[in-house]
Amino acid sequence: MQEDIESNFWKEHFTHLQHKNMVRIDAQRLDYNGFLHAVEQFSHKYKEYNPSYENNGSYIAWEATVTNTIKIRLFYQYQIKGSLLQQQGNDFVKIADAKFPYNPFPEILEFLKRKNQYETELRAQQKCNLQNNMKIKIAGEFIKAFLSKHFVNEPTVIWTLEPEEKGFSLSLNSKGWERKYHLDFENFVSQIENLN
Length: 196
Prior knowledge:
Elements: H1 2-23, H2 32-45, E1 52-55, E2 60-65, E3 70-76, E4 80-88, E5 91-100, H3 105-113, H4 115-150, E6 158-164, E7 167-174, E8 177-184, H5 188-193
Antiparallel strand pairs: 1-2, 2-3, 3-4, 4-5, 6-7, 7-8
Helix pairs in contact: 1-3, 1-4
């Protein structure tokens, strides 16, 4: 679950980076030599991002480290394509793609310089998610206990409880009938007591 939060977080910022590139005023389109020059300049000037590149004559591939688990990659062959990579096991796997019509290095530099701010935001989201997951788990245990108590005298009623975004889905089954209910986090006690 935490990896999905991290992936989604960085994808959102990567999409924003692409959008800023598309709407930038006075943006410069790059040909092969212009892209190579921009890569060399960036790689020489900002070594703290561990930039590396490969120029094989028909394409240029450039890469930089965003965090220990996230990398950004640019690939130029007639146009600039970007990818965001996330570490999964020992490998980095592509989690987002984008095309950049203009020189993407101004946006990439801004993105990289905000890395610490972004990591703080990500940790806050992960902490909030962890707290929400704990609340869901505790509420689920309370609901199961309430359901067991509520249906103690009705052994033919079979119930299943599934977590949802804003509560739980409760299904009741008994000899020829089935009912479904939504239980929310704040009112599940009164909702269970009013089941018929």
